[in-house]
Amino acid sequence: MTSNTRSDGINRRTILAGFGAGTVASLGAPQILRAQTRELVVGGAASHKAWVETHVQPLFEKKYNAKLTFEGTRSLVNLEKMQKNKDRPYLSVVQMDDPVMILAVKEGLLDPLTAAKAPNLAKLKPGTVHMDGQWANYLQPWQGIAYNTNVIKEPPTSWADAWDPKYKGRIIIPSLQNTEGLANLFVASSIATGKPMAEAMRDTESGFKKLVSLKPNLLTVYNQMPQAFSLLEQGEAHMIVGALSSFALQRRLDGAPLGLAAPKEGIFPVPSGIAVVKGGPNADLAFAYVNELLGAEVQNKIAPPTFALPTNVDVPIPAGMPTNATMHTIDWAFVAENRNSWVQRWDREMSM
Amino acid sequence: MSAAAARDRTGWLAVPAVAYLGLAYAIPLAFLLARSVTGPDGFTLALFAKFFADPFSWRVIGNTLRIGLLTTLLCLAIGYPVALAMARSKGIVQVILLTAIILPLSIGVVVKAFAWQIVLRRDGVVSQALVASGIWSEPQRLLFTEGGLVVGAANVFLPFMILPIYSVVKLIDPRLTEAGATLGASPFYRFRKILLPLTLPGIISGVAFVFSMSVSMFVIPSLLIGDRFQMLATLTGRAFLLMRDEALGSTTAVVLLILALSIVVGSTWIAKRLGKSA
C-alpha cells in the first residue's frame, strides 16, 4: 500500500483542506472588506474620469473610508441609467450637464441638496444652485471664441466678429444639439436687438434670424468637438465661436496654435452640475461627496487642470482664466421647455 | 437516410443565427414598429400623417435618397472596372488588388473622416491639384459639402460594390467574349451584349448593398458634412438621443426601414427575373 503522507506531514487531505480554506477565505474576504468599506458609485462624463481619479478619489476614499467608483459616460446615458433603475438605483451621485439635470428633476430622480446635508452650498456663488437645491454647479468651464493664432494675430474682442465677411467659410459653431450650442443663439439675439443678454436670451426669434445671416461664414456646425478643433488647428477654420475652455485650453497647453478669447459681451458658463440620486445607496456618503466637490479643498485642486472657474467663493480664479469677464447665467428651465422646438427650427433654418 | 433528408437537416445550422437575429433585431424592430403606430387611443397612423405633412420631412427624404443614389452611382462607376480587373487578374496581382479592397474595411470610419479632412481641405492635395491644373483659379471649399459626403461615403462602401460584381465575373467563362471577338464584335458591343448582361446580378447585389447602407448611414454624415445636413438616419438618432421623442424617432426609423427594404426586395426581384431570362 502506498502512503499519502509525506515526510513533512502534509498529506492529500491537508492539501485539500488548505485549498478549501483558502478558497473560502478568498471568496469571503471581499464580503468582510465590503462590510467595512462602503462603496459609492458616481455617474459622470467620460472626460471627467481622469481628474476624478487623480484629485478626488484618493482624498474621498481616505477621508470617508469608502470606495469610490466613477462610471464615465455621457449625461444622457446617466439619465437613462437613473430612469431604468428608478426602483433600485445603484448610482448614488450624478455629475451631468444642467439641461439633463432638468429632465432628471422632472422625473423625480434627484434628492435635493440642503445646507444641513451639504454645508458648502452656503459657500457657492449666486446662480450656481438650481431649482431649490435639486442640483448645484461645482465648476464653471466657460465658452468664448477659440481662434487659430497663426491666422488671427489679435484675439477677437466681440462675438459679432463671427459675422465679419472676411471670415467667409471659416467659422465653426457648435450644433444646437450640443449643450454649448445654446450660447450662439442667445448671443445672436443680443447682437441683433441690442438687448441685455438676460433679456435677449428669451428673444430667440431674433436670435434665429441673426444666426441665419451667419450661414455664409460657416465652414460647418459641429457635433463632434475633436473634429472641430482639428480643423481649427489645421487652419481650415479660423474661429470656433462658442468653444469650451476645458477643451480649447488643454489643446493650447498641448501645443496647438490656438487661443481662447473672452469677448466684451461676456462669456457663458458650461454647466457642470452635481446631484444626489433619490433612493441611491449610501445617501450619507453621496451628500458627503457632493459637499467635497462644492468645497474649497477639492475645487482648488480641480479648477486649474479643468480650465474652469470655481463656484466656491473662497477659491481664487486659476491663472489664465478671465477675471473681469461677465458670466451670463442661463435659465435652464426655460431652455428645457423650449429646446426641442429650437432644435427643430435650427434644422430647418440652418440647413445648407 | 436519404441524401434529401440529410440536406434538410443542414437547415438547422442556421438556428443560432436566426435566434440571434430574432433577439437582437426582430424583437426590437417589432417594438419600434408598434411604437410608430400607437397613439394614446391605440392604433393610429397619425404619426406618419404628421411626418409626411411636414415639407421638411420631404427635404430629409430627398437628401437621403439623393446621397444614397449618388454614392451608389459613384461606387458603381469606380467599382465595376476594378471588379473586372480583379476577376481577370492572376497570382500576386489579384492578391494585391483583393488586399487593397478588403484591408480598408478594417479602418474605422472616424479615422477615414479625419483623413478626408486632410485631403479635402483648402490647402489639401485635391484643391492644390485643381488649382495647379488651372481648373480652379483659387482654392475652394470641398469639406462639408454634399460632394465631400458622397466621395467619403463611396470610399467606405466601395468594397461592398466591388466584391459581389467580382464574384459574378469570376464565374463567367472568358471564352464567351473571345468568341464574340472572333465573330467581329467590337469591344463596346461585346461589353454591352455579353459582359454587362451576365454581370447584372452582381451589379444589382452591389447596388442593393451600397444603397441600403448609404441611406442608413449615421456616423459618416455626422463627420463629413456636420449638423447642417439632415438625413433620415441622423434625424432618427437625434430624435432618440437628444430630443427623447420616441414617436418621431420610431416614425423616421420605420420610413427609413421601408426605404431600405424596398431597395433590397426590389433588387432581389430584378436579379431573379434576370436570372430566369438569362
From TrEMBL, chain A:
The keyword Cytoplasm does not apply. It comes from the Bacteria. PROSITE patterns: TAT (PS51318). Keywords: Signal. InterPro entries: TAT_signal. GO terms for biological process: thiamine transport. GO terms for cellular component: outer membrane-bounded periplasmic space. GO terms for molecular function: thiamine binding; thiamine pyrophosphate binding. Transmembrane segments: none annotated. This is ABC transporter substrate-binding protein. It comes from Phreatobacter aquaticus. The lineage of its organism: Bacteria, Pseudomonadati, Pseudomonadota, Alphaproteobacteria, Hyphomicrobiales.
UniProtKB/TrEMBL annotation, chain B:
Residues 61-269 form the ABC transmembrane type-1 domain. Belongs to the binding-protein-dependent transport system permease family. CysTW subfamily. GO terms for cellular component: plasma membrane. InterPro entries: MetI-like, MetI-like_sf. Keywords: Cell membrane, Membrane, Transmembrane, Transmembrane helix, Transport. It comes from the Bacteria. It is a multi-pass membrane protein. It is found in: Cell membrane. Gene3D superfamilies: MetI-like (1.10.3720.10). The keyword Membrane applies. This is ABC transporter permease. The chain crosses the membrane at residues 12-34, 65-83, 95-119, 149-169, 198-225, 247-271. PROSITE patterns: ABC_TM1. It comes from Phreatobacter aquaticus. CDD domains: TM_PBP2. PANTHER family: ABC TRANSPORTER PERMEASE PROTEIN (PTHR42929:SF5), INNER MEMBRANE ABC TRANSPORTER PERMEASE PROTEIN YDCU-RELATED-RELATED (PTHR42929). GO terms for biological process: transmembrane transport. Pfam families: BPD_transp_1.
